[in-house]
Amino acid sequence: MAWVLGIIVLLFYAVGLPAALILIWNLRRRVRALEGRPPVGEAGPGATIGAAATPMPAPAHLAPGPAPRPRAAMPGLEVLIGGRWLTWVGILAIFFGTAFFVAMDLRGSALSGVFQVLVGLAVALLFVVAGRWLMPRRERMLGLGLLGGGIALLYLVAYGAYGFHRLVAGATVYLFLVVVAVIGSLLALRRTSATIAGLTLAGALLAPLLLSPPGDPAAALFPYLVAVNFGAVLVGRRAGWAGLPLAAFAGSAILLAVWAEKFYGLDRRLATLAVTTILWLLHAVRPLLGAASWGFWSAARGAVVLVNGLLFTLVVWWLLAPDLTHLRGLALAVLALAYVGGARLGERRLAPGPGLTFTRVAGIAIAALAIPAQLDHAWVTFGWTALAAALLWTDLRGGGLPYRLMGAGVLAIAVIKSALVDPADAATELDRWDLATSGAFVAGIALTALIGCLSALYRRRGSRAFGTALLVAAVLLLLEKITVEIVLAYAARTAALRVDLEPAALLTVTLAWAIYILAVMAGGFALRLRVLRILAIVLVVLLVAKVFVLDWRALSGGYRVAAFGGAGVVLLAISVLYQRRRPE
Known about the structure:
Layout: H1 2-35, H2 77-102, H3 114-134, H4 140-164, H5 170-190, H6 194-210, H7 218-239, H8 243-263, H9 269-285, H10 296-319, H11 328-349, H12 354-374, H13 378-399, H14 401-427, H15 439-460, H16 464-497, H17 502-526, H18 530-554, H19 558-580
Helix pairs in contact: 1-6, 2-3, 2-4, 2-6, 3-4, 4-5, 4-6, 5-6, 5-7, 6-7, 6-8, 7-8, 7-9, 9-10, 10-12, 11-12, 12-13, 13-14, 13-15, 14-15, 14-16, 15-16, 16-17, 17-18, 17-19, 18-19
């Protein structure tokens, strides 16, 4: 296990630490900008040299509003690295050293257990006292770092005393953790210090990784993660530190994944579902508590809503295996309804924002995942077709661009499945193939009809580009379904009769293409749709290429005569249409 710990530490230093420092730096810069005040005694922008040059007051209706607060000057890179980053790196190094000491196996020595915990507690208290003493002095950044590191060490010592050395009862250590969380939160809020909050959270999340107790730590880890996330959400919302709940969410997901890989079993199903549900609710409900305008951090919070929903969907999917897989679709459908309903309720009391948008997107994404979880084969195509129809109909009724994008995405997935996956599934069951009962063909026809209707509706509403794209998709998908069913029909007869019907299949496909192209061209003239006529010409090129390249080599005798004769008749018919009904 030593190499695992080494990899974790290396990843933290190489990836996690720079990311955390950048996050804290950005939060810190925002706080300093919000707290900035013009220096006392300096002249304002309207002052001049000399007392006699005092400007006359402007009329009331022309008087300017309050002057904006000047933005705090950004420190130079040298000061940033030497005065701040080295402070955090040094404190984290001592934190790691203390963690390794607390987790050290002293092999039954009298110093084992209690002594290790007391040393860790002494280092934590020393950090807190030194931080409070340095706060009012010039070494304020060091004081902030020591305060945050001290709170993080208190988390570490408490978790080590219970989860690693088993020195205290669970109720005692959880009460201690609550007290530590309250103290850290109050210090961070009182000092308006993202440094304290960030270091406290880092220590809280690193403690379970650095202290690996023997056996299953679920009894200690699950309530611990709930407390950490609850505190991060409260403090982040109170102080406006958007990165704090995001970091808590990411760290908790990693810790739960590490635990599940080692210890999960069916006997832990209910406990795992309970803790993941609580963590999911904390990060799913939070964006619905208040509106937020679009910006980097608000968009990041919205993205966490989506990721949180998808991860919880995977957890539910995983927990229902292997004996409850028949409930997966129902569970995901209920979860999707919860997201869509939450977004709907939020729209009635909040202004539009990233939280509501991503909540709605998460609900639609989970609904799309629920369909293959409950259905199979062509029924999945039917389900996605119905979902796409509902989304695009909502867009047509004034739902807006998000519904169009989501509907188009689901529709594209349905088209890909109908064109690629469904024929492959049907090819594996040739002995039972029948055009009248072919689910793949019926689902494809229903999907084609939906796309055609939507194309007409969107073109009528003025969305010509989107309507035209749908029309092209419908024409090509229908041609593909016709071609596939012809090939499957001859393949089924070949398997049943043990004869070679490949020439007949090629000829039938050629003649079907010729008739279909002629129908598309006639529709283009009848409906006065130039896009259909152009699409028919493109298909004519494909037909000619097939006849002169593939049919020429593969067919012989009457099959070759019929293929070339059929293609020629279609070309002449199209020529007659163009000569009699010249398009404008």
